[in-house]
Design brief:
With 211 residues, the protein is mostly helical. Helix content is 53%, strand content 3%. It has a two-stranded antiparallel sheet with strand order 1-2.
């Protein structure tokens, strides 16, 4: 006769329902990835998340990851160097250009090419919600996109050659000729910061640019 007190070997299966499409943030906000609301976007959540997301899938030199938050600060500095005295709101947009990655992470470009359009659609919706939250247009002007891309490519070249093991010729072929910063500034911005330092410096720059 079987032992009626024996418990089933596995817990009962959870109820079947629609998949969860939101993420709970440390602020308590719940951000819906399918229909993100600007009201659920908080800069502290963005800074905290980006400071803990690694660029280059973590394949960089140094005792700390080179975070997306540090990359964002670098890109904004390069944009100022290349484009001169651009509008403060545009500088804020440059700082926030990778902000959706606090939710979806930093996927390297080859993987984005494999995934295709679905990833970019989610990314675009998140960036539109973030932009509205901080007084930016949901669709960025073409000139602003051009500035962001140029500074982003310069940052990618510098990171690739200084941190990710790329040869100069290979980096130039992939990212083009970079804008350069003063050597001392470049050394600071390309030495990986701790997660806490990256969060603080990202927030400091945001406070200087936000309306």
């Amino acid at each position: 006769m079987p032992d009626t007190d024996t418990k089933p070997p596995f817990p009962p299966a959870p109820r079947v329902g629609p998949p969860r499409a939101w993420q709970r943030m440390l602020s308590g906000r719940r951000l819906d990835l399918l229909d993100p609301s600007p009201l659920d976007v908080e800069i502290e959540d963005i800074a905290h998340g980006l400071a803990r997301v690694a660029r280059w899938n973590g394949q960089t030199h140094g005792p700390h990851v080179f975070s997306v938050a540090q990359h964002a600060v670098l890109v904004e500095r390069l944009a100022r160097r290349a484009a001169g005295d651009i509008d403060r709101r545009w500088r804020l947009a440059v700082l926030l250009h990778d902000a959706p990655e606090y939710v979806i992470g930093d996927m390297i470009s080859p993987f984005k090419a494999v995934i295709g359009g679905d990833y970019r659609a989610v990314e675009a919706r998140l960036l539109a919600a973030i932009s509205l939250r901080f007084g930016l247009p949901p669709v960025w002007p073409r000139d602003l996109v051009r500035i962001v891309k140029a500074a982003d490519h310069s940052a990618a070249y510098l990171e690739a050659t200084r941190l990710a093991g790329f040869a100069d010729a290979e980096a130039r072929r992939l990212f083009g000729r970079p804008t350069r910063l003063d050597p001392a500034v470049e050394a600071d911005y390309l030495t990986p910061w701790t997660a806490e330092a990256a969060k603080i410096r990202f927030l400091q720059r945001f406070e200087e640019l936000a309306p």
